[in-house]
Design a protein that fits this description.
Number of strands: 10
CATH topology: Ferric Hydroxamate Uptake Protein, Chain A, domain 1
Helix content: 10-25%
Radius of gyration: 18 Å
Number of domains: 1
Largest sheet: 6 strands, mixed
Low-confidence stretches: 4-18
CATH architecture: Beta Complex
């Protein structure tokens, strides 16, 4: 039994190290050896553009966002299937004013308003433009060369991540 303990410890260390994602620098030409993570706060915060390593074949989008300090909050009705807040934007008591509409405060109970919402986007390697993601942040598998992004749209302006 004693012979196997060092092997078990080594295997645990190796496997745990293989499963983590980390923010890495873009190369000198602006390329990313992992996945690009972008957040467009729509003027409500400082945008994010980062490169994150993917140690295996793929990584979950939620882990890539977490690696660059981006946290998301879902809704009470739909959990993390719907993005309601990103790094506490919009704030729980933040009033969003939209011309011609009553002031709005997001409560994250149901679906966010069509006039103030977070969109989740992805781009496969080689794809030119952003498209709405085909899965949720909790479930989308991202490969090296892919890009994922969040963008806050207000007043009917359909924002996209910028990269």
């Amino acid at each position: 039994m004693r012979k196997f303990l060092p092997l078990v410890a080594l295997a645990t260390l190796v496997l745990s190290g293989c499963s983590s994602v980390n923010e890495v620098a873009f190369d000198q030409y602006g390329g990313c050896s992992g996945a690009v993570v972008a957040v467009n706060y729509g003027g409500f915060g400082d945008d994010v553009l980062s490169c994150v390593s993917i140690p295996g074949q793929t990584a979950l989008a939620k882990d890539l966002f977490a690696a660059v300090g981006v946290s998301t909050e879902g809704t009470k009705a739909y959990g993390d299937q719907v993005v309601c807040r990103v790094n506490n934007i919009p704030g729980k008591n933040q009033t969003i004013s939209i011309a011609g509409e009553p002031d709005y405060v997001e409560d994250c109970n149901e679906m966010p308003s069509a006039l103030a919402y977070w969109g989740f986007f992805s781009k496969s390697q080689g794809q030119e433009s952003w498209a709405f993601a085909t899965d949720t942040i909790a479930n989308l598998e991202v490969a090296a060369g892919d890009s994922i992004g969040l963008a806050f749209s207000v007043a009917g302006n359909s924002a996209r991540p910028t990269d």
